Amino acid sequence: MTKAEVRIRALEDADIGDITALDEKLMGEYRPEVWERRLGYYLRRDPESSTVAEVDGRVVGFMLGEVRSGEFGLEEPTGWIEVLGVDPDYRGNAIGRRLAERVLASFAALGAKSVRTLVDEEMAGIADFFTALGFQAATLRPFIKKL
Length: 147
Ligand SMILES: CC(C)(COP(=O)(O)OP(=O)(O)OC[C@H]1O[C@@H](n2cnc3c(N)ncnc32)[C@H](O)[C@@H]1OP(=O)(O)O)[C@@H](O)C(=O)NCCC(=O)NCCS
Fold this sequence. Notes:
Blueprint (H helix, E strand, L loop, with lengths): L5 E5 L5 H12 L4 H14 L5 E5 L2 E11 L9 E9 L8 H15 L4 E3 L9 H7 L15
Parallel strand pairs: 4-5
Antiparallel strand pairs: 1-2, 2-3, 3-4
The structure holds coenzyme A.
Coenzyme A binds next to strand 4, helix 3 and helix 4.
């Protein structure tokens, strides 16, 4: 696959169907209401930062996030990468890297001084992906309590 075949662009309303199908392929469940709500949120909050990769008119990867400040004791504006996925048939072609480049440039343009994400160590490969992109383990740790 050549770089030219992959188009990296801002998320659009019309991507809901493709992203729902990609999520079903990744997670094994068809969840149209979840994606309608989730993508609606990102489109309203910050349509420029959330990014998709398109090949032959179909979305094969996406990265969603936004800039926030004042949370978890982090006063400075911080970009958060919250959801990402690349179609397994297209992995290893720098699509994840190119999605991140666009998302990070958008966060920086919105005044973010750093970018953060949370990685579940049980999800193989995601920590390696972020490490390859220059992310380092941080001191902010998630705490959990069952309800
Ligand atoms: C993590 C993920 C986004 C990577 O996408 P990708 O397009 O294959 O990544 P890239 O080709 O851009 O890789 C970028 C760098 O990360 C590294 N990398 C990517 N996946 C890796 C893996 N599984 N193990 C080790 N390194 C990895 C690559 O080697 C590359 O490093 P380099 O540029 O130094 O050579 C993709 O594997 C994925 O979608 N995983 C599942 C995510 C998921 O489950 N989402 C649903 C819940 S949110």
